[in-house]
Amino acid sequence: MRIAVLSDVHGNVPALDAVLDDISRQGVEAVVCLGDHVSGPIDPAGAAERIMALGATCIRGNHDRWVLEADTRTDPWSSDRFARERLGAAQLEWLGSLPATAALGTAVFLCHGTPGDDEAAWLDNFYDGRTTTLPSEAEVAREAVGIAHKVILCGHTHIARTLRLSDGRLILNPGSVGMQLVRGTPDAHYAIIERRLGQWRTALIGVPYDTEAAARLAEDNGFPQWGEAIRYGWAGPESLG
């Protein structure tokens, strides 16, 4: 089985289109989307439309919740409010219907942050300036207690990484399709997992796209801080505000 894994599109349609075009040549049998689909100042409605049309297995991320709560939160992120104001009723209904976790059969488990918390960083602790902290195996394994699936997929940190626990379970973060941070790559990131000869293999993929067009859309929509992050991929997470 060959599966494309997407996460953290953040409404970046130029990046998403480039990834979907690349996926179309990969011979995948399924697509999964790990959340934070629309929050961002580029094209939230366009991103929702494309993801809804995929027939993919989708879960919600913390920003998907926050988009839905943007009218009631006391201090909503401006990118969440921007998305909320541009989504149609059907798109908001779809977003509200997404589960926090999901599974593909008995082999693959999907979550956004960790299985129990969509705001928690898992394979990499969140950034402190330009520094991230790699947790120990014990810390990673603690969050996977009770998950019997051979493959566990997560997102949230925007850092593409894959590891294996000592018991053989594979945990994968595909990185972010739509917003690159800290690592200095502007490319749109996703992953492919494949079961071959009884083993699960991974490929972490970066796809170049028209970052200038995406950056200008963000800037034209009143989010100049997104421009630098989209163009160069060196900015910190404060650019997601």
UniProtKB/TrEMBL annotation:
Signal peptide: none annotated. Residues 1-194 form the Calcineurin-like phosphoesterase domain. InterPro entries: Ap4A_hydrolase, Calcineurin-like_PHP_lpxH, Metallo-depent_PP-like, Pesterase_MJ0912. Belongs to the metallophosphoesterase superfamily. YfcE family. This is Metallophosphatase family protein.
